[in-house]
Amino acid sequence: MTETTTGARSGVTDEIPEYPMVRERGCPFAPPAEVRALGTRKPLSRIKIWDGSTPWLVTGYDELKTLMADPRVSVDDRRPGFPHWNEGMLSTVHKRPRSVFTSDGDEHTKYRRMMTRPFTFKRVEALRPAIQQITDDHIDTILAGPKPADLVTELALPVPSLVISELLGVPYEDHKFFQDHATIGVDRFATKKQATAGVVGLATYLKDLIEKRLSEPADDMVTELAGRVRAQEISLSEAGQIATGLLIAGHETTANMIALGTLALLENPEQLAIVRETEDPKVVAGAVEELLRYLSIIQNGQRRVATEDIDIGEVTIRGGEGIVIDLAPANWDPKAFAAPQDLDVRRQAVSHVGFGFGPHQCVGQQLARAELQIVFRTLLRRVPTLRLDIPFDDVEFKHDRLAFGVYTLPVSW
Ligand code: HEM
């Protein structure tokens, strides 16, 4: 369904398509064709979202970088005009304490500082042996078990879940609880009831754990957050929100990248062979960057609102207007990446925006990179005959999640 409006400074009348758009059948790795076409033809356009509002959609690579780095572009979801993902996010906006995801400027810096330490390059490098061990253990289990194996439940989900549980100090025995709640939290079309049960339920669980660590400290991030609560730097609710964000962002995204990335490699055997055969860790690292570019799993658009008028290209975004920044078409913008539809693991793709750009760029990117490099390299070398066990057309993709991926991935060898 479309309607018309005059959004551009030029006053040109245009049709407004509904967003999110749907990926084409048979081309699940590609951003939806409509979004791709906008990316090259019209990097800034209007869309209509679930509540009938018509925010801007950003699909061009240069425009994305400009806007994501602009201090007049806010992530504060309480501001009028903010284009919420769904009813669930709108309905919990005043229930959710402020956090790194929803704050700007100094407030954002305050929250971000509290979570960056365990995710620095140096700290993540020190975690590599532990990640390698967890990966090897899970591959041992797969190889000793029946065929086919579901790569999602046997490898893609447990590896990042175990790593983030360990870092945070969340008992892994509770993984079923937090994975289920995180799953609701990343529903693209979550209702008010679902959002309350999902994200709020998880935050309550983490607040209880933080309270426990006040009297029973351990060597983990939850204890560190408890210390900040005791020092009155943040409230218990804020600490719970930080831990919730890390727990959800820390496993769901990487898990989707592992399973979807494996599938993309299986569908491109000559690219897979490059990753499997190389002795050079830089080649594996480059392949991970290319997979992050090619797949851009965060599929619902990063949500922002303009705090002042912003002139960009041929349009003026007015103060108070919503902005949806879609990473996938920007990563397939031919002005930034030649032949973007080709998965080319030798391409220099490091300038991709799969982790976002600007002050809110992903906190956990070094950890995600380390996990992906270790898992792909180990899996392809230890299981060189790995293959998809069902027809490609039968794979169930996560069209209804904020992060794209597959629900299951039956593989044999
Ligand atoms: C392949 C895996 C991952 C992908 C593709 C990914 C993607 C992203 C993207 C696109 C953003 C920017 C959001 C925005 O600007 O609106 C982001 C932010 C964030 N990510 Fe990730 N992420 C991944 C893994 C992780 C991990 C492992 C963690 C933590 C352990 C994490 C924690 C965060 C946090 C806390 C933010 C918010 C940063 C801020 O607002 O300042 N992510 N991520």
TrEMBL record:
Record's keyword annotation contains Transferase: no
Coiled-coil regions listed: none
Pfam families membership: p450 (PF00067)
Keywords, ordered alphabetically: Heme, Iron, Metal-binding, Monooxygenase, Oxidoreductase
InterPro entries from the UniProt entry: Cyt_P450, Cyt_P450_B, Cyt_P450_CS, Cyt_P450_sf
Superkingdom in the source lineage: Bacteria
Family: Belongs to the cytochrome P450 family.
Name the UniProt record assigns to this protein: Cytochrome P450
Species: Nocardia callitridis
